[in-house]
Every structure is written in C-alpha cells, then in structure tokens.
Design a protein that fits this description.
Elements lengths: L1 E9 L2 E10 L4 H13 L8 E8 L5 E3 L4 E3 L5 H22 L7 H14 L6 E3 L19 E3 L1 H9 L5 H15 L4 E4 L9 E5 L2 E5 L11 E4 L6 H10 L2 E3 L1
Parallel strand pairs: 4-12, 5-10, 6-11, 7-12
Antiparallel strand pairs: 1-2, 1-3, 8-9, 8-11, 9-10
This protein binds pimelic acid (PML).
Pimelic acid binds next to helix 5 and strand 9.
C-alpha cells in the first residue's frame, strides 16, 4: 500500500490538504482526484500543490467507524448545550475514575469551546482532565495523519444526502483518535460557511448543526486522561497507518 498526501497553498497560505491510502494500481486515479480536489477548492485556486507518495512499510490497522448520529438543533445555544451534555456524560466517567472534582467538568468544556472559537490552528489542541494543553507546539497543535476510509464507507456516507465529504474525513479522524487513547473530541469546521460540527465519544460521532455560526472560526480539541502516555499516543496518531471501514 502507498500513502498519498496533498497540500495546496496560495501566496504561501495553506488552502487545502487531504490524504489517501492506496493500492499500487489505484495510485494514478487517486493522485488525479487529489489534484482535482486541490484545484477546485472552496478556498480558491492554489498556486502550489505538493503531492507526496510514500510506500507504507508498517502494518495497516483496520478500524470499524464509530456510529454516526445526526442530531437536530436550529441555533448555536442549543447546539452548544447538546455538545456540553454529551461531553459531560463521557468526562464524568473519567473524572470519577481519577478522583477528580465533578465541579470542574464544565470549566474544562468551556476551555475547549474557547479554543475552537479562537480558531487559527492547523492541528488539534489536546486537553488533559485539568485543562492543561499537552501539545508540544500550541500554535500548531497535533495532526492526525496516515488515515483513509474504505471505498465502501465513502459510498455509504455519500449515499446519505445529509452527510458530506467533510464527514468522511472527520469520521476517519474521530475513529482513529478514540481508538488510540483519547476520551473524546469536539470539532467545528474552519470553513466559515460550514456550521455542522461534532462531538465524538466511544458511543458515537454526534453531528450537530449550528455548533458555530456562519462566519466564525472553527477548531478541534481532543480530551485525554492525565496518566496517558502522550509521547506514544501522539506518535501513533501521526504515524500508524489506519483505514476506517
Ligand atoms: C460533518 O459534517 O459530519 C463534518 C463536520 C466537521 C467538519 C470539520 C471540517 O471538515 O472542517
């Protein structure tokens, strides 16, 4: 198998990026589709497209995608409350296990909201249960790399008119991080006009419309236990090749 990574920029500013894991006979087709994706991106036509092709030498991990649940909400306040409740329920388990004060759960969730609303990060922020940021570089955050979804999962998602290409990328990220040591994730899109976000826990990928308003920044936060081996987990979410099916 081969890894293909595309990065496109305009005037030195990142416009789009995507990656795929491919068999040898599909490299050409996938390389074309990645170039097309870069050329016709909503953020504008790039002036530079980098395409990197690498042979994958380590074993690929296949993961079943977490269940997709689309929720209904027509305003940001309700959406934030829904996401808070899902996160609170999950975090309570880990606060209890680690003997932590339940009163601090909402402060932790507020910290995550502040990070996603501030935006402007290429990767994700990582918070432990005390709200400490754990990334080496908090400007960049951590990147989840070497992932793809099976053709069957892509077709299944796109056959549902409510779901989008963004769901495909996001379900791959959420499934990988939840299987590699993180407790939960919250995400809003960095695309100004895309207001569907999600909260992911082991119970599901909860898609929540209006998790931000149009025109606002977006971001990603992963939650992790304080005792987790972050060096090992960060290395795995970046390097272990995963196909989500
Ligand atoms: C979805 O519609 O399921 C994806 C929501 C998150 C999008 C994040 C992004 O692509 O920027």
């Amino acid at each position: 198998m081969f890894s293909l990574k595309m990065r496109a920029s305009k005037d030195g500013v990142h416009v789009s990026g995507a990656e795929r894991i491919s068999t040898e006979n599909k490299i050409e087709e996938i390389a074309n589709s990645l170039i097309k994706r870069a050329l016709f991106h909503e953020n504008g036509t790039p002036d530079t497209i980098n395409l990197k092709l690498e042979k994958i030498t380590s074993e690929i991990t296949y993961l079943k995608h977490i269940p997709i649940k689309t929720l209904i909400s027509n305003n940001k306040e309700t959406s934030r409350n829904i996401s808070r409740n899902i996160l609170r329920k999950e975090l309570e388990v880990y606060f209890l296990k680690n003997g932590k004060d339940f009163g601090k759960i909402d402060i932790l969730i507020d910290t995550a909201f502040e990070i996603i609303d501030k935006g402007n990060m290429r990767g994700a922020a990582v918070l432990d249960l005390d709200g400490n940021r754990l990334e080496e570089d908090t400007e960049k955050g951590v990147r989840v790399k070497n992932i793809d979804t099976s053709e069957e999962l892509k077709s299944k998602i796109l056959a549902d008119s409510k779901l989008t290409d963004r769901t495909i990328d996001a379900i791959a990220i959420a499934t990988k991080v939840l299987n590699f040591g993180f407790i939960a994730e919250i995400c809003t899109s960095d695309n100004y006009s895309y207001n569907i976000g999600y909260v992911a826990t082991k119970s599901g990928y909860f898609r929540i419309p209006n998790l931000k308003n149009e025109g606002e920044f977006g971001g990603r936060v992963f939650f992790i236990e304080n005792s987790a081996n972050i060096e090992e987990i960060f290395e795995k979410i970046e390097k272990t090749p995963v196909i989500v099916y």
